[in-house]
Amino acid sequence: MAARLLLRSAVRAATTCRTGPVPALTRSMAAGGIPTDEEQATGLEKIIMKATKEGKDPYSMLKPKQYTGSKADPHLVPSITNKRIVGCVCEEDNTSVIWFWLHEGEAQRCPSCGAHYKLVPHELPH
């Protein structure tokens, strides 16, 4: 009996006239494409991506800009207070660090090598 039902459904399928092509089954991602990182991001990741698009570096993740260290172009040191301790490795091969306090206002010199540093205000992103 099962064979008869199977044969009957096969004959019906072969003799039935179809009006158009059978639509192919598609996955939902294939219809709209794979979402981008910006579309999938949420929470803190989305805030960081948005700030990066605007040219900001909210959590100091990028490499800092190189400055000459002269009085006209001092190294900028961000701080949330009016002073910060700074460590200067005066020469490339030097193994010791010269530590000194940097206060807001004019650029200050390293006591050992003479490189200039300036304290700049920094706002926390959250």
TrEMBL record:
Q: Which annotated residues bind Zn(2+)?
A: 88, 90, 110, 113
Give compartment(s): Mitochondrion inner membrane
**Would you name any one GO CC term?**
respiratory chain complex IV
Alphabetized, the UniProt keywords read: Acetylation, Membrane, Metal-binding, Mitochondrion, Mitochondrion inner membrane, Transit peptide, Zinc
A single Gene Ontology molecular function, please?
A: metal ion binding
Give the highest taxon in the source lineage: Eukaryota
Q: Which GO terms describe its biological process?
A: mitochondrial electron transport, cytochrome c to oxygen
Name positions with the PTM N6-acetyllysine: 65, 83, 118
This protein's name: Cytochrome c oxidase subunit 5B, mitochondrial
Q: Which organism is it from?
A: Mastacembelus armatus (zig-zag eel)
